[in-house]
Amino acid sequence: MNHLYLSTLAIAFVSSVIPFVAQAADVKNIVIVRGALADGSSWRKATEILERRGFHVTIVQEPITSLADDIAATKRVLDLQDGPALLVGHSYGGMVITEAGHNPNVAGLVYVAAFQPDKGESLLSLASSKPAGGMNIRETTDGKYLYLDPAAFANDFAADLPKDEAAFLARSQVFASKEAFSAKAGDPAWKTKKSWSVVATEDRAINPDLERQMAERAGSEATEIKASHAVFASQPEKVADVIEKAANEAGN
């Protein structure tokens, strides 16, 4: 067996192993796409927990001007990651990660009390298919954006948070365009990538049964947590546990 043959054989072996190694790389980047109404800073507790566990966390502050704009904003953050990333979406953020998840940097998807659409579905069509406890949603004077009545915010969105925290969320909420809520989803990334779901059992913004149904349809591994729609803020440790587990499994 000559040296040239051995060299060729070695190169072929290394070339075949490299893609496998890259595919099985540890997932240490967590990209969180916040939902409508709650500002990204509301993820601070969960972020700090994940960072203590060795993860690098980035939160997308998408404009919620249109679904396309928000997908583009998420892709810009994904492109900045050094290595594979786990994409996490809360509420409306689930609409965003369903399409942004096609980015080659994305190793898996985590839906946290989130909409998990199939192709052609919108946030409004999903929400109306199985109404929740009721949200006192109002329109801005120009009729283009929606927001949650601050007086009803704690009860409808964050009933299990301390009053001062819920009040801050209400004052810092991000208005959502009607266009974003009515936009139809494209081909979902959950059909080709691993996914996980957190079902908030006391959610008044998204019917918990709808969260269960969407997770089952997508084949997502679901974890139920007794919490409001603001589960990521009221139960940050439990949500971080799900994200950490997903990151570990996505890398295998």
From TrEMBL:
Keywords: Hydrolase, Plasmid, Signal. InterPro entries: AB_hydrolase_1 (IPR000073), AB_hydrolase_fold (IPR029058), Sec-Metab_Biosynth_Hydrolase (IPR052897). Pfam families: Abhydrolase_6 (PF12697). Residues 1-24 form the signal peptide. Residues 65-242 form the AB hydrolase-1 domain. One of its GO terms (molecular function) is hydrolase activity. This is Alpha/beta hydrolase. It comes from Rhizobium sullae.
